[in-house]
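target protein:
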Amino acid sequence: MSIGCLPRRGVLGAMLALVPELAQAHAILEDSQPPAGGSIPAGTVTLRFRYNSRVDRARSRLTLTRPDHSQAVLRIDPDGPPDIMTTQAELVPGAYSVRWQVLAIDGHITRGDVPFTVTVP
């Protein structure tokens, strides 16, 4: 039976039944340093991204967008906990964003953006 044939309550039940499966199938960003919308002082900065599951660092990517809108792919540290990706960058004051794209161990790709501001130290 297709979802279109289910009564309204049946559609909601079918959708809710899928939620736990979808939540476990993707690496979701749980925490970042700096946090989305946060600010950090200029200089050599460590960027840290923690996910709800293990990620494949070798097949994941962090892309920095600078204040002048140029982009750079950041080197992900190869070591550390399996659910955390870290990198370092030399940043001057301005508005930045990191576009993260991760491959979860189960093969699903997720992505998102973490905008932040770099301030004068």
